[in-house]
Amino acid sequence: MSVTSMKTNDDKRVELEIKVDAETFEKAVDAAFKRNSKRMNVPGFRRGKAPRKMIERLYGEGVFYEEAVNNTYPAAYEDAVKEKGIEPVDRADIEVMQVGKDGYSFKATVPSSRRFRSRATRVLRLKRRWRRRPTQRSTPSFPACRRRMAV
């Protein structure tokens, strides 16, 4: 996972373009194949016993891509938000831009709680005033209350 670009808008929205590498995507496609192969019906094979290449030849190469993208983009999005230090307020709008054997890329538009400045930020330092605690107790002690309430 890598963030290829980051843009900020005036309305406190940050656009991230995120690319997921081929290795992560291939693992997700394999997991999607294992989950969905039981439902695929291929002539000449029992249900769920067809090899991946035969299913891809019959249904198309990208038959498992949608599920693989849906399973991997939340983790990639979370990593990108942590990497860039963005505090999201609401769910991001996700738009998948490109999907292929070499991975996929998507654009996430994130509403942020504050204006995001990627360069210099001002640091506000406050001095904390320490107050002494009063030496007397504000409430009477438990034994004194017990003596007063005794009959």
Outline the fold blueprint.
Elements: E1 2-8, E2 13-20, H1 22-36, H2 52-59, H3 65-84, E3 93-100, E4 103-111, H4 142-149
Antiparallel strand pairs: 1-2, 2-4, 3-4
Could you write a compact summary of the structure shown?
The chain is of the alpha+beta class and 151 residues long.
Care to describe what's here?
The protein has 4 helices and 4 strands, in the order ββαααββα. By secondary structure, it is of the alpha+beta class. The chain has a 4-stranded antiparallel sheet with strand order 1-2-4-3. Helix 1 packs across helix 3 (65-84). The radius of gyration is 29 Å and the shape is elongated. The protein starts with a strand and ends with a helix. The model has no long low-confidence stretch (mean pLDDT 83).
